[in-house]
Write a structure and sequence with these properties.
By secondary structure, the chain is an all-alpha fold. It contains six helices and no strands. The chain has helices at 2-10, 35-55, 63-87, 90-93, 99-124, 133-169. Helix 2 packs antiparallel against helix 6. The longest helix has 37 residues, at 133-169. The model has no long low-confidence stretch (mean pLDDT 86).
Length: 170
């Protein structure tokens, strides 16, 4: 009996207990089903297609396509970052940042940049020979650039509505 008491007394935790806190960031699965979430996903997918289609060719011979790559990758990175911020709910945890204004500025500037990019991309398609790899990729990238422009324009409208609502509440 004494031995059992001694053994159980020796089984104290050897690892000190630490105050482990859980993260306050959570995955917001309902965000993906909202209009803003769907448009952000469309911007990510279509924007990625633009820079993949251009990047798979010899685009560096034309400075106009270097501009297309710059805008496509820059907007894609910013959009993915904003999507992650909204998806994990960080915009609610950091109220010091005016997220509606940030979203409005990002989407409006991206819509304008992508409109210029889509026109430039469409005009450079004539530099390639019809039926060749570069022609097909550049034509497809021009189509997706215009589609991405429409997505950014839609997001700009939704961001403007959110921004206006936020400004009226203050």
């Amino acid at each position: 009996m004494e031995r059992a008491a001694v053994v159980s007394g020796c089984r104290t935790p050897s690892v000190p207990e630490y105050n482990i806190s859980t993260s306050t960031l959570a995955f917001n699965q309902h965000f993906i089903t909202t209009a803003k979430g769907i448009l952000l996903l469309a911007e990510i997918v279509c924007g990625m297609l633009v820079w993949i289609l251009v990047g798979g060719t010899h685009y560096f011979h034309l400075s106009a396509l270097c501009w297309v790559m710059f805008v496509a990758i820059l907007c894609w990175i910013l959009t993915v970052s904003l999507f992650i911020i909204y998806l994990i709910g960080a915009h609610k945890r950091i109220p010091q940042v005016p997220w509606t204004t940030v979203s409005l500025c990002l989407h409006c500037s991206a819509a304008v940049l992508y409109l210029v990019t889509a026109v430039v991309d469409a005009l450079t398609v004539t530099e390639a020979i019809r039926g060749r790899h570069n022609y097909n990729c550049w034509a497809a990238s021009a189509f997706f650039a215009f589609l991405t422009t429409l997505c950014y324009a839609g997001s700009s409208y939704l961001s403007f509505c959110d921004w206006k609502t936020t400004e009226e509440q203050q």
